[in-house]
Design a protein that fits this description.
Blueprint: E1 4-10, H1 17-24, E2 30-35, H2 42-46, E3 53-55, H3 62-71, E4 77-80, E5 85-86, H4 89-101, E6 108-117, E7 123-134, E8 140-142, E9 148-150, E10 155-164, H5 173-183, H6 190-202, H7 206-219, H8 224-240, H9 244-253, H10 262-274, H11 278-290, E11 301-302, H12 308-320, H13 324-337, H14 342-355
Amino acid sequence: MISISLCMIVKNEENSLERCLSSVHKAVDQIIIVDTGSTDSTKQIARKFTRHVLDFEWIDDFAAARNYAFSQADMDYILWLDADDVLMEEDLSKLLALKSDLKPDTDSVTMKYHLAFDEHANVVSSLRRNRLVKRSNQFRWIGAVHEYLEVGGQIIDSDIAVTHCGDDRDSDRNLKIYMKRQSKGEIFSPRDVYYFANELKDHRYFEMAAVYYQRFLDDGKGWIEDNIAACGKLADCYHELGDSSKELACTLKSFEYAPPRPEFCCRMGYYFMQKNDYSTAAFWYKQAIENPAPDTSWGMQNLSCSTWLPHLQLCVCYDRLGFHELAYRHNEAARHFQPEHSAVISNKTYLEEKLGIVHESGTTAVSSV
């Protein structure tokens, strides 16, 4: 059985750290907590779980802090988490099983990262990260902001998920770091250009974000998943700026990098719905359902776009085209994922009356799609 060091960097995490450590401590053999300047009870909470609570002077560099934490580990493998992450019980069980069975020639294990959920606890946003790495390989973190762990060798894609429970308390932090670096005249890597654009967009500086997304794409040196994501985010910027032609152009540009992803198929479907071209819209929504991104995809996935959303939109399209039975079937498919969604409920009532489907009570109700 392998041994695991959990390595974390923290600052003012008194509201989340105990929840995180309680969810994972049974699976790890050592916990390393590196504090970058807490002024609350974070370090006291950490000491409930470990004696390895260390201080690191914050220098606006996340990779430096994470690399220091990794350097303190003693076990065979290193697991990393943020304080606002947790392992659900089933994922803790999976990690314990992995710990027992993992072959020692494994260099890294990827895990799913569940970022957002709907009101029914369905995952709507997810990606993959290298989470468990062999310590002897001395893999390094790279990047002052939105850092990444550079790994190689034998990599296993697991079905373990880490669940993010963050509240974005310090939402200006990364933007301020980028702005400081920019003011010093630092030359950004393509990855930095992309993430700087993300920060600008998240803070609603859409025109400036569009400039940096375009610069990133024009440079042609980005990771393919970032290229695809940048097309979508640039389309979002132009949508906010009211430029539908550029929004469409960005959506189409994503097809240069990979087969159409569900998110972009839904974008295309919505574009044609706005033009009342329901037949073409239906084509694109069907593509979203029939061509989901693989579960091992490293890019950000909006899982709504391959599950309930295209079915709901197909219901609307087929109703407008007069294919009410087909509309009803797609609404039922959407209802499988979103049984309490107001539009799904309204569509069901409307279409059952349209098709003469009688409720168990013997009554029908009138609504509209």
